[in-house]
C-alpha cells in the first residue's frame, strides 16, 4: 500500500474545498467555551474553542 503524504498547504486546500462545497457550512453558529484568546497588532485574533466533547491534541497522537 502506498502512503500519501500531503503538505500542510495541500491539506488546508482540501479541507477548504470540502467545507466550501458543502452547503451545510454556508451559515453556521457555534457554541462553546473560548480560552487562550490573544489579539495581535495585525488585527488577527487566535483562541481555543471547546465544549464538553473537546479532546486534547495529544489524545489524537498515535504511533509516534
Descriptive report:
- By secondary structure, the chain is of the alpha+beta class.
- Helix content is 22%, strand content 20%.
- Strands 1-2 form a two-stranded antiparallel sheet.
- The two termini are 20 Å apart.
Residue runs with pLDDT of under 50 for 5 or more positions: none
- The overall average pLDDT, rounded, is 83
The share of residues in extended strands comes to 15-25%
Give the number of DSSP strands. 2
Helix count from the secondary structure assignment: 1
Bulk shape: extended
The structure class reads alpha+beta
Distance between the termini: 20 Å
Describe the oligomeric state of these chains in a short phrase: single chain
Strands ordered across the widest β-sheet: 1-2
> What radius of gyration results from the CA coordinates?
16 Å
Summarize the structure.
This protein is of the alpha+beta class.
